[in-house]
């Protein structure tokens, strides 16, 4: 598409200066079991947040942070995820003929964002295994990749820009964390961190290790992993050297732990905004409502309906402690 090419060129001219990665990886080969039966035929990554699939929101974030290429890790039969980023001439022709130009613009957005490639993970053998599939499509001079989990909406966007700055200054790999309430730590991978003595930004911390789903008493901090990673190319070598864990799965966090143990610098940026977990129906619904409330065409009516639905006696304090 002419418009798409112009948009991509404009982004690359702006971005090559700022970001320290060209390729953003979106692993989308998981089974999505928490969303069954919907995910029997519809990939979780295509479920819409209002009207836009989660993966398009994440691809937009990647493009805005300087990525030029999106590599989607898919599984056999999940072709629809990549098709979302491919021009559909029949649909576009029909919309143009009917004068539906606002819809045409919406449909063309995804394909104009960045160049899209895919690799196939034949079996869902874990996030680490999914990331490992990407090495073969990287250019020789790419020394880092960004990984964005399409389940995670980290808002407002922009944390990857901060992560890029941290890598440029301190090298190595940079991860993203959110500060969660103490009673929720057991649901997350939690970072063991130390302050960086010369850091100007107090949200940049050195990572000494990570504990998966710790009991509250064993949690080294309240900083939980959010789905954004800026990984040095050394991650691929580490992924080759770790052992698969439960269910034969290769864990990305084990490879990161190996890099830390070998002295590779790993830092975390604590993101002070909000986050939505699209990977489970409860989190997904919250995201959909949150996004819809912000939309001019749906927000006011939804707000009014929620008000009626919850009733005048609804008390958030009571509900939270019930
Ligand atoms: P999740 O564990 O959240 O996704 O993995 P899942 O496995 O699809 O979901 P459930 O737990 O069965 O409901 C985080 C991300 O990593 C990808 C998933 O697609 C998701 O985007 N992933 C996970 C892979 O690409 N391959 C895997 O083997 C596992």
UniProtKB/TrEMBL annotation:
Enzyme Commission designation: 2.7.7.9
Alphabetized Pfam families for the sequence: NTP_transferase
CDD domains assigned: UGPase_prokaryotic (cd02541)
Root EC class: transferase
A single GO molecular function term of this UniProt record: UTP:glucose-1-phosphate uridylyltransferase activity
Catalytic activity: alpha-D-glucose 1-phosphate + UTP + H(+) = UDP-alpha-D-glucose + diphosphate
Keywords assigned by UniProt, alphabetized: Nucleotidyltransferase, Transferase
Biological-process GO terms, alphabetical: UDP-alpha-D-glucose metabolic process
Residue ranges occupied by any Nucleotidyl transferase domain in the UniProt entry: 24-290
PANTHER family per UniProt: UTP--GLUCOSE-1-PHOSPHATE URIDYLYLTRANSFERASE (PTHR43197)
Family stated for the protein in its record: Belongs to the UDPGP type 2 family.
Protein name, per record: UTP--glucose-1-phosphate uridylyltransferase
Biological source species: Nocardia panacis
Lineage, uppermost ranks: Bacteria, Bacillati, Actinomycetota, Actinomycetes, Mycobacteriales
